């Protein structure tokens, strides 16, 4: 009896995670496209940096406002959803795996499959569970992440008209291993990122629930003691904290993913095939040629995106999970 119940719970978490991830990704896609354009641009991404450095050419994108206008002018509104199909194909299984694994790990740690009981586990276990869940989800969905980055960064004229042509070209030129270019920095990034995101989310929820109990003099410890706005704030804070810490590794990942992509010269210098030997070489080269600023290219749209993305994901997950539980009984 226990096994079917656990299977149903895993399917419920996976479904709720997939739906919440898809909603979040679609809503925040414009910010993600701008972030990717900044991350793969080898030239400075701010006007101030251009003035301070003796550079032979100008930068395509020099700020969020300028980048937004430029993408809108050259590619129209659809340009802000470039790569959204592989992004959804990535984020839906990613989030599904992540939440399903996370719930299973928390169940093992707390000894109960009741979601309300998961807040009683140690904060350290919350961080570890989040990190391991992120690891499993990344390995399972990474090729879609790579395809999303390539389609979102190519600009106009397009290098690849669709996801299918990008997939076959990568396999033919780089082999199947090419679909996992940049996986190492991604795994190094995702464990602390997911750990921080889920760990801080649980921590913020504990603090908010304790505050609610003090204010309303109630002993309730369920998720329902938090309003949707409070869940939104907790998710927003968790997403922001995680992104600020892990952004440099995301930049390195993007550089590996677009190695050899023949973008139009107007987008600046290209990342040559095999430009970086490994993750540490990439970090060193970016730091040497672009400075600390290079490791934080795209941090503004990334942070602006991470906050609502984290908030929307967690709120959508909570409500979808509750809705599915009410339907399934």
TrEMBL record:
Solcar repeat locations: 8-108, 121-207, 226-323
- Pfam families under this entry? Mito_carr
Q: How does it sit in the bilayer?
A: Multi-pass membrane protein
Answer whether the UniProt record assigns the keyword Membrane to this protein: yes
Annotated InterPro entries: MCP, MCP_dom_sf, MCP_transmembrane
Which subcellular locations apply to this protein? Mitochondrion membrane
Residues making up the signal peptide according to the UniProt record: none
Q: Which UniProt keywords apply?
A: Membrane, Mitochondrion, Repeat, Transmembrane, Transmembrane helix, Transport
Molecular function GO labels: thiamine pyrophosphate transmembrane transporter activity
One cellular component term from this protein's GO annotations in UniProt: mitochondrial membrane
From which domain of life does this come?
Eukaryota
Belongs to which family? Belongs to the mitochondrial carrier (TC 2.A.29) family.
Q: What does this protein do?
A: Mitochondrial transporter that mediates uptake of thiamine diphosphate (ThDP) into mitochondria.
Report what the protein is called: Mitochondrial thiamine pyrophosphate carrier
Upper classification of the organism: Eukaryota, Viridiplantae, Streptophyta, Embryophyta, Tracheophyta
């Amino acid at each position: 009896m226990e096994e079917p119940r656990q299977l149903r719970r895993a399917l419920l978490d996976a479904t709720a995670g997939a739906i919440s991830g898809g909603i979040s990704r679609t809503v925040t896609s414009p910010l993600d496209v701008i972030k990717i354009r900044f991350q793969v641009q080898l030239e400075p991404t701010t006007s101030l940096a251009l003035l301070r450095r003796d550079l032979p050419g100008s930068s395509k994108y020099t700020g969020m406002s300028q980048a937004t206008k430029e993408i809108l002018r050259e590619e129209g509104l659809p340009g802000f959803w470039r790569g959204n199909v592989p992004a959804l194909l990535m984020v839906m299984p990613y989030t599904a795996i992540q939440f399903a694994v996370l719930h299973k790990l928390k169940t093992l740690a707390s000894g109960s499959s009741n979601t309300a009981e998961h807040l009683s586990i140690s904060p350290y276990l919350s961080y570890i569970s989040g990190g391991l869940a992120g690891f499993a989800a990344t390995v399972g969905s990474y090729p879609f992440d790579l395809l999303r980055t390539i389609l979102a960064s190519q600009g106009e004229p397009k290098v690849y008209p669709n996801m299918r042509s990008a997939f076959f070209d990568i396999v033919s030129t780089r082999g199947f291993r090419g679909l996992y270019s940049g996986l190492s920095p991604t795994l190094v990034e995702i464990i602390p990122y997911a750990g921080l995101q889920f760990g801080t989310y649980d921590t913020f929820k504990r603090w908010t629930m304790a505050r609610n109990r003090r204010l309303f003099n109630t002993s309730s410890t369920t998720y329902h003691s938090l309003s949707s706005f409070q869940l939104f704030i907790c998710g927003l804070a968790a997403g922001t904290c995680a992104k600020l810490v892990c952004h440099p590794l995301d930049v390195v990942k993007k550089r590996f993913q677009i190695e050899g992509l023949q973008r139009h010269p107007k987008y600046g210098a290209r990342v040559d095939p095999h430009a970086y030997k490994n993750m540490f070489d990439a970090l060193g080269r970016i730091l040497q040629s672009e400075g600390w600023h290079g490791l934080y290219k795209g941090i503004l749209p990334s942070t602006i995106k991470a906050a609502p993305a984290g908030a929307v994901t967690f709120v959508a997950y909570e409500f979808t999970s509750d809705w599915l539980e009410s339907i399934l009984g």
